[in-house]
From TrEMBL:
UniProt KW Cytoplasm keyword: yes
Gene Ontology terms, MF aspect: cysteine-type deubiquitinase activity
SUPFAM superfamilies: Cysteine proteinases (SSF54001)
PANTHER family assigned: 40S RIBOSOMAL PROTEIN S3A (PTHR11830)
Species, as recorded: Atrichornis clamosus
The UniProt record lists the keyword Repressor: no
Name of the coding gene: Cyld
Protein name: CYLD hydrolase
Length: 227
């Protein structure tokens, strides 16, 4: 049986299919962290489509099949995914993982991504980071941590990533195949930013470790970096 493969939505097709009422992934029982993550990863990009088709041991194919046939393909075909489909995935994750509360509790998106990418689908880490010359760290996504900064009222993603890397003395060891970024967390009582502008392109030149860069004064290859 041939597995159905629908391309991600782009440009006018994305607007036509995804805009309006009863579009997106239906929320239910604290599923928002997973709904938002799945929509971001699959609705308009194919970067992680290997997750949907890579061969895995038989015991793991339930999760892969639900992800592909009940969530990603309906999202790309009609722009809508029922809450019952996401609950089906959450039930499978509860069975496979070490945590029994995937079906009812709110989670950190990083916990969900680590479980599905590492423990269930066996994907290699997407990011290699280094902090202050320490040992490399492998991870699947990067969560922005930063203190409140008065000059940033409505920041864009580029500004947040750069300032977060700077404050944590972080560098990317290599150019990532996929750069999943989690925006600053907030609770019901406090939001660090009321809005964040998506950066449609991300310049990581200054975030790369040992990457040759231009001197801002003379234009030659820089030998020193001023934080």
């Amino acid at each position: 049986q041939a597995l159905e493969s629908l391309p991600p939505l782009r440009n006018e097709a994305a607007v036509r299919v995804l805009r309006g009422r009863m579009k997106g992934i239906q929320g239910h029982c604290n599923s928002c962290y997973m709904d938002a993550a799945l929509f971001s990863l699959f609705s308009c990009t194919s970067v992680l489509d290997s997750m949907l088709f890579m061969p895995f041991p038989l015991c793991e194919r339930n999760v892969q099949g639900i992800l592909r046939d009940e969530i990603v393909n309906p999202l790309r075909r009609t722009g809508f995914v029922r809450a019952s489909s996401v609950m089906h995935l959450r039930e499978q994750l509860t069975d496979k993982g070490q945590c029994s509360s995937f079906t009812n509790a709110e989670k950190d998106p990083e916990e969900f991504l680590n479980l599905i990418m590492q423990q269930i689908l066996g994907i290699e880490p997407l990011l290699k980071l280094q902090s202050g010359g320490q040992k490399e760290q492998d991870c699947y996504c990067y969560q922005i941590f930063m203190d409140k900064q008065e000059d940033l009222v409505v920041p864009d993603v580029q500004q947040l990533v750069e300032r977060s890397f700077l404050s944590s003395d972080l560098k990317l060891v290599e150019i990532p195949s996929c750069f999943i970024i989690q925006m600053p967390r907030f609770g019901k009582e406090y939001k660090m930013f009321s809005k964040i502008i998506p950066s449609l392109e991300l310049d990581i030149t200054d975030l790369l470790l040992d990457s040759p860069r231009e001197c801002c004064l003379c234009g030659d290859v820089a030998t020193l970096e001023c934080l």
